[in-house]
Amino acid sequence: MTTRNPENTIAVSHSDPILADTAGILAKKLGLPTYDPKENVPALLLTLTPERLELRQTGKGTEGPLFVDFIGGAIEYRRMHTTSRKEAIARAVGLKGGTSPVVLDLTAGIGRDSFILAGLGCTLHMVERSPVLAALLADGIDRAKMEPALAGIMTRMHLIVGDSLEIMRHWQPERPEVICIDPMYPHRSKSALVKKEMRLIRLLVGDDEDSDSLLRAALDLAGRRVVVKRPRLAPALIGPEPNFTISGKNSRFDVYLIAPIATAPAQKA
Ligand SMILES: C[S@@+](CC[C@H](N)C(=O)[O-])C[C@H]1O[C@@H](n2cnc3c(N)ncnc32)[C@H](O)[C@@H]1O
Fold first, then answer.
1. Is the pLDDT at 1 greater than 60, yes or no?
2. Best probe residue, ligand 1, of 129, 237, 250 (max atoms within 8 Å of C-beta)
């Protein structure tokens, strides 16, 4: 279960009167109120603008806005400069020799890790249980589909809104080769290491307190390996020892091997 802060109320708003009906439909779909300027301002606003869907924190000195941008943002720059040898997540997932496994991402968030892996050829099933984050992610995917350079990658990214434990319970027919888990870590500081975006996501979803159960279920379901992303110095999730870890500057990947990933047969000249 997540620990949500009850003060973090959220409503749906729009930046242009022409979007009022669409914002109303979105609010209904997400089970959220629409923002009424005559009432108290909620802590968070999910705001529809002509360009995109944004999560905004209200009040002074606040974070945001948060939106998903696969097209021109930092994540697209990272994808364009990523090779499977260089990027820690790609090595953790076991991408080498032309492999492109099917990956189940149990903690999709705003889809950055999934995007990097889809860019390297993996097929991603991404599960997110926060309907608001899932709406932001779906909006980012829809916009990226219109971009010819990204349309192919987007066909490999499939979003599922729901709780991963439940989704894994009913998963069929084929086991995903790799399962990735990147739970919220209970950072309490406002340090620069905890990115602004993550602080806003935390306000929305709280801490992920079921990560140990996610690992157990993932180890039962994955065909080849389970990869858990942790802050560099954080303890591993409760369960078996990882077979190995790959450390980056701020984060670490704990890798649990189930079976080797088959490498693609060598191409004949
Ligand atoms: C740290 S963020 C993941 C960030 C993500 N790796 C990225 O690249 O954007 C963790 C996310 O996992 C989601 N989450 C945690 N436990 C979940 C569960 N059991 N089922 C579905 N989503 C879950 C949270 O709602 C949160 O959005």
1. no
2. 129
| pTM (2 d.p.) | 0.90
CA–CA distance, 220 with 56 (Å, rounded to integer) = 38
Q: 243 C-alpha vs ligand 1 centroid, how far in Å?
A: 23
Ligand 1 pocket test, pick from 8, 141, 165, 208 with the greatest ligand atom count within 8 Å of Cβ, gives 208
Tell me if 227 is assigned to some domain: yes
- State the sign of the Cα–Cα–Cα–Cα dihedral 127, 132, 135, 141: negative
For 31-72, the pLDDT digits (tens) are 999 998 888 889 999 999 999 999 999 987 776 799 999 998
CA dist 232 and 244 (Å) reads: 14
The total number of structural domains in the chain stands at 2
Looking at the structure, tell me whether residues 31 and 139 fall in a common domain.
no
Boundaries of domain holding 23: 10-57
Q: Tell me, what CATH number does 140's domain have?
A: 3.40.50.150
